Amino acid sequence: xxxxxxxxxxxxxxxxxxxxxxxxxxxxxxxxxxxxxxxxxxxxxxxxxxxxxxxxxxxxxxxxxxxxxxxxxxxxxxxxxxxxxxxxxxxxxxxxxxxxxxxxxxxxxxxxxxxxxxxxxxxxxxxxxxxxxxxxxxxxxxxxxxxxxxxxxxxxxxxxxxxxxxxxxxxxxxxxxxxxxxxxxxxxxxxxxxxxxxxxxxxxxxxxxxxxxxxxxxxxxxxxxxxxxxxxxxxxxxxxxxxxxxxxxxxxxxxxxxxxxxxxxxxxxxxxxxxxxxxxxxxxxxxxxxxxxxxx
Length: 296
Prior knowledge:
Layout: E1 16-21, E2 31-50, E3 57-61, E4 67-70, E5 76-77, E6 81-84, E7 92-107, H1 111-116, E8 127-129, H2 130-133, H3 138-147, H4 151-166, H5 174-185, H6 191-198, H7 202-213, H8 217-235, H9 241-248, H10 253-264, H11 268-279, E9 282-284, H12 290-294
Parallel strand pairs: 1-9
Antiparallel strand pairs: 1-2, 2-7, 3-6, 3-7, 4-5, 4-7, 6-8
């Protein structure tokens, strides 16, 4: 696998190597994908500003942990494994230094709630130590994943672990379906129409969506629409922002710019340029989705 160098770092042979695969069909209503990142930053560090985003995942760190910085604070190391809920606002930075090796389980919009029965409002804007959430189950899982050396082995271990939770998981219902439709369409479907088709009231939808996703349906649409715009720009960087805004369902480019400032703290042009600078370090597998590239 070839290595591309970051601009201005000609002496650096480091790259962020990324892999991603889909789960077994029996797990696809719970899990969106499994991913891996590997890198060795011997002489450089990379800082990535986190934008608001709908992703929910569990992530394991086997070498150097990621470093997290909130506004007004210094960097602190992540725990060995974290459970991350929806991010509703910008304000945190990730730092990458030294040898990086991570394994990530990305969940469907309601996957964590279905699997563990937890109220997702408690996870919004949080990176919770997995050992604090699942005290009894975490040590054995962390140990098994750490002892494995290949991505395929870790995927098999994670799938067996998740399968063990399925018997007690909540059955798939209309809220799961609505949340997945909103994610799939980038928030382009009518929330009211989806509620009517599901035979539930707007108030019921709001209450249950908050419990199982962590944010309101309307705000989740904002997050998925912005993610769709970023993914479109990543796929075709030569597109104008006016075209991207129209395709994503924004009223105009100014509307997209206002959302970008609210959800990532800067203009879409600035954010895209920063992500492009980081992506020059990335070596990605052919099957990796565009949305995953945006989450580097």
